[in-house]
TrEMBL record:
This is ABC transporter ATP-binding protein. Residues 2-235 form the ABC transporter domain. Transmembrane segments: none annotated. The keyword tRNA-binding does not apply.
Length: 262
């Protein structure tokens, strides 16, 4: 279980501090699929990076399975929108990368990497280099690489944001299959209401900056979800209403900033 308790984040910007997150409190159950949704600049990526241990919080605490966390660890892996693959390494070497750092033998690394490449449908591409792959395939490699170290928590920062609609839908279904099969806890950042509704157990809607948690909306419809059903339509209207207020507020803040700078 992940417990985030009273978390604040301020960025120091040459004297002008930016308050990115204020008093974030969240409990995430083991195996839950959580989506973070909010207007641009509300601090979604910041929150994900803090949970990943890539940047420190300014205040507050976080624990995973009862242990305080304030840095990166093998229990967490991150998948980024831009894939972040090593272009000079083959697909297999990319997947093996984290295992090498953990001192696993060559045989073990190969077994794990090949098994995961099969899981993501890329068994035939193990010896290729990333530039030979489409965006969707690169993101599959990136997911396989994250899973290789067997993290309990998979942190995903708009992983499908750069993909075309069809590839995105395919990868959403594959991710749900992997999530069920590997029993990971997932925190997934997205801009898309539809994506959040399709994927998550709970949607955490954040306010315009500085980001606070505005509302947590449970999505208990069984999967695979029929987005055209009445229940999903109702949820969609609810999320749209809650998020819409914050998108409007974010636009007003931006306008006020522009006026102040003019
Ligand atoms: N390294 C940094 N230094 C200073 N300010 C930063 C830094 N990183 C982010 N910020 C600011 O913190 C706030 C939150 O940014 P963050 O990227 O976490 O938001 P986001 O919700 O993920 O945005 P988007 O949806 O556009 O990706 C923004 O105002 C941003 O400008």
């Amino acid at each position: 279980m992940v417990i985030i308790d009273g978390l604040d984040k301020r960025y120091g910007n040459q004297g002008a501090d930016v308050s990115a997150l204020v008093d974030i409190n969240l409990k995430i159950e083991e195996g839950e699929f959580i989506c973070l949704l909010g207007p641009s600049g509300c601090g979604k990526s910041t929150l994900l990076k803090i949970v990943a241990g890539l940047i420190p919080a300014t205040h507050g605490r976080m624990s995973i399975d009862g242990k305080a966390v304030d840095g990166p660890g093998p229990d967490r892996a991150v998948v980024f929108q831009d894939y972040a693959l090593f272009p000079w390494m083959t697909v297999r070497d990319n997947v093996e990368f984290g295992l090498r750092a953990r001192g696993r033998s060559a045989k073990e690394r190969r077994e794990i990497a090949d098994g995961l490449l099969k899981t993501v449908g890329l068994a035939d591409f193990a010896a290729r280099f990333p530039h030979h792959l489409s965006g969707g395939m690169k993101q599959r490699v990136s997911i396989a690489r994250a899973l290789a170290v067997n993290p309990s928590l998979l942190l995903m920062d708009e992983p499908f944001g750069a993909l075309d609609a069809q590839t995105r839908e395919t990868l959403q279904d594959e991710l749900l299959r992997i999530w069920r099969e590997y029993k990971k806890t997932v925190i997934f950042v997205t801009h898309s209401i539809e994506e959040a509704l399709y994927l998550s157990d709970r949607i955490v809607v954040m306010t315009a900056r500085p980001g606070r948690i505005k509302q947590v909306i449970a999505v208990s419809e069984p999967r695979p979800r029929d987005m055209t059903s009445e229940a999903m339509g109702r949820l969609q209207r609810e999320v749209r209403g809650v998020l819409g207020e914050e998108i409007n507020r974010a636009a007003q803040l931006e306008q006020a900033d522009m006026m102040a700078g003019a």
